[in-house]
Amino acid sequence: MAFSETPYELRSARFLAAEVHARVLRPGDTVVDATLGNGHDACRLAELVGPEGRLIGMDVQAEAVERSRARLTEAGLIGRCELHVLGHERMAEIVREPVRLIVFNLGWLPGGDKTITTHWDTTRRAVEAALSLLLPGGVLTVCAYPGHAAGDEERSALPGLFAALRPQDYNVLHQRFLNAGPGAPECFVAQRQG
Ligand SMILES: C[S@@+](CC[C@H](N)C(=O)[O-])C[C@H]1O[C@@H](n2cnc3c(N)ncnc32)[C@H](O)[C@@H]1O
Fold it and tell me: Fewest beta carbons less than 10 Å away: which of 41, 106, 131, 164?
């Protein structure tokens, strides 16, 4: 493995997830962004899969999809992207073949309506669908944000869902900052076994 030029900074759940994404994705891969939001993650992921790769993105809010479309267009990446206004619990309707990586960044749209946030009922169904859509060796990352009611419920319930998976099928890692207070974001990484 080549050494990175940039200094390592242990600073956030999203940073930890982004490191995993950069290690997992290869040019030509298909990646799913299950929570498009403002399109920051989508731009980074679409870069990583290269011009032969594909990003399938979704968000329950049309506003988020349009913001992401604008950002991807501006970055010259929209040609490799397929964006949907859709709840991620329905992702199996648009992801028709196994994929290398599926990314969830839970919560609400930054700069948007905070009442439209992810909720455990749909997050659970979406994560279960995503797990079954991974290629062997494929990876799922979930960044969870406690500190509000829906986020607290997700953060509390996710370990149970992942812990129930058979180790023959998935390896799962749970990363949390131990000295950053109870509201600190957490990152879950699951890899489907070969
Ligand atoms: C924290 S934001 C995502 C940030 C984004 N990844 C970025 O880089 O800007 C979470 C997003 O999840 C979306 N969301 C909430 N419930 C959803 C659902 N059931 N399916 C898909 N997206 C959902 C929200 O609309 C919001 O845009």
Answer: 164
Q: 123: Cβ below 6 Å to ligand 1?
A: no
Q: Decide whether any atom of ligand 1 lies within 6 Å of the 68 Cβ.
A: no
Q: Could you give the number of structural domains in the chain?
A: 1
| Domain of 30, in residue numbers | 13-192
Nearest 10 degrees: CA dihedral of 54, 59, 64, 69?
A: 20
Q: What does the buried/exposed string (b/e) look like for 57-76 if buried means 16 or more CB atoms within 10 Å of the residue's CB?
A: bbbbbebbbebbbebbeeee
In a domain, 1, yes or no: no
Domain annotation covers residue 46: yes
> In this prediction, what percent of the chain has a pLDDT beyond 90?
90
Please work out whether the CB of residue 107 comes within 6 Å of at least one atom of ligand 1: yes
What pLDDT score was predicted for residue 1? 54
**Is 114 buried (19+), middle (13-18) or exposed (0-12) by CB count in 10 A?**
exposed
